[in-house]
Amino acid sequence: MPCSLQHIITGLLESVEKSGRSDREISLAAVGHESAIRSLRRGHDPRLSTLLALSQELEFSIEFLTKGDIVLPDTCEEVPLLGEIAAGGSDGHDDGQVMTYAQNNRESTIAPVGLNADDLSCHGALAAMRVRGESMQPMYQDGDYVYVYGKDPLRYTPDRLIGRDCAIVIDGQGGMDDGAIYLKRLRRADNGERDMFNLESLNPHFPTMTNIAVHNVMPVRHVRRSF
Questions:
Q1: What class is the 78-224 domain?
Q2: What is the pLDDT of residues 42-66, one digit of tens each?
């Protein structure tokens, strides 16, 4: 059954307490500023994108997203649609292609609900990719949209993204121009190599990609579900 907004907020705050981490640390990691959890504690109505980001950071499952459960301001803003991101893990049909930020991509899609102009333009501007595949279920479904920033402050520090869901470009594949890009949870490599990582699938039916050299890593900042 879908959860009420208050049930979700209560569950998130309970997860914060269980994590042993500070409100500031979790807020910064999830949404890039330190006031997200403080706002929840003060009773402010959150944005849907903030709830999704906090739930991912705290690994708290949200079962709502049915129309009418949560009424939040919508948006008619559009952002670039870079292409598809593979939620796969095998060679072949699960590989995704994504366009470079430098290219003038004419495709676009709507931004997540509740974002303001600053949210859309900071860190090199927000852009979307369409999820293809099932390896990141139940968190991400085939057809969902994930949003990243082209110049995310954590983009060049993958060690700080361990345990986070990211858009990951495989090294040696041509970079953002024509390389394979995966939606995976970033983990440390089995072989202990500093510049290699494991790419974890959330769906237990898909294997983890182990000891992978990566070209680029961008944390997923927002998610929009496909209905």
A1: mainly beta
A2: 877 677 777 778 888 888 776 544 4
DSSP state string for 6-37: HHHHHHHHHHHHHHT--HHHHHHHHHSSTTHH
pLDDT for position 70: 44
| Domain residue extents for the chain | 5-58, 78-224
Identity of the residue numbered 186? L
Geometric angle at alpha carbon 139, from 138 and 142, rounded to 5°: 75
Tokens matching residue 158: 């993958």
Rounded to whole angstroms, how far apart are CA atoms 166 and 163? 9
Query: Which pLDDT score, from 0 to 100, does residue 166 have?
Result: 93
Beta strand pairing call for 126-132 and 78-86? parallel
pTM over 0.70: no
Residues 204 and 206: their CA atoms lie apart, in Å, by 5
